[in-house]
C-alpha cells in the first residue's frame, strides 16, 4: 500500500514544472484557447484536466452515456492533462472505439509532452488516424471543418459545449 502511494506521488511530482511566462509562450498559447474561436454546431468539445491515471479513467463514461445526443465530431482537449498511464491509454482507445461505433468522429488535441509521448509509443495515433491527433484546439477545429462537408451555424452565445462543465459525476 505504501509502495503504491509512493509510486503515485512520484508520477504526479514528475509532471510538475516551474517556468517563466515569455512572449513566445503567450504567442504559442493563443492556438490553445477557445475564446474568439467559432465552435460549429457539429462539434462538441470536452477536456481532461489533471493526471489521467488508473483512478480517473471512468470519467469518460459520462461522455459515453451522452453520445447519442452529441454532435457528429467530438474534440477531446488534452492541454490540461498533466500525465497519463497505461490505464489512461487503454481508456482513451476504448473511448475512441465507442465514439466511432456511435457513428461519430474523435479528434484529440493539445497533449503535453509526457502524455503525447506515451500516446505515440502506445500507437494511439495509428488507432485514431494521425490526422485526428492535433497540436492545438485551433488545429482540431480546422480538422473538424475539413471532416464536415457542409457549413454550419455557429453555436448561439452562451451555449454549453461540454468543455468547462465540472459537474460530471465521478461515479
If you had to describe this structure to a student in words, what would you say it looks like?
The protein has a domain at 39-147: 2-Layer Sandwich (Transcription Regulator spoIIAA), CATH 3.30.750. Helices cover 38% and strands 10% of the residues. It has 7 helices and 4 strands, in the order H-H-E-H-E-H-E-H-H-E-H. Strands 1-2-3-4 form a 4-stranded parallel beta sheet. The radius of gyration is 16 Å and the shape is globular. It starts with a helix and ends in a 24-residue tail after the last helix. Residues 158-171 have low confidence and may be disordered.
CATH superfamily of the domain at 39-147: STAS domain
Q: Could you spell the SSE succession in H and E letters?
A: HHEHEHEHHEH
What is the CA-based Rg, rounded? 16 Å
CATH level-3 fold name of the domain at 39-147: Transcription Regulator spoIIAA
Kindly state the percentage of residues in helix. Answer: 25-40%
Q: Spans of 5+ residues with little confidence (pLDDT < 50)?
A: 158-171
| Backbone shape | globular
Number of helices: 7
Beta strands, count: 4
What descriptive keywords fit this protein?
Transcription Regulator spoIIAA, 38% helix, disordered C terminus, 7 helices, 4-stranded parallel beta sheet, single chain, alpha/beta, globular, 171 residues
Topology:
Elements: H1 2-14, H2 23-29, E1 43-47, H3 61-64, E2 73-77, H4 86-101, E3 105-109, H5 113-121, H6 124-128, E4 133-134, H7 137-147
Parallel strand pairs: 1-2, 2-3, 3-4
In short:
With 171 residues, the protein is of the alpha/beta class. It is built from 7 helices and 4 strands. Helix content is 38%, strand content 10%.
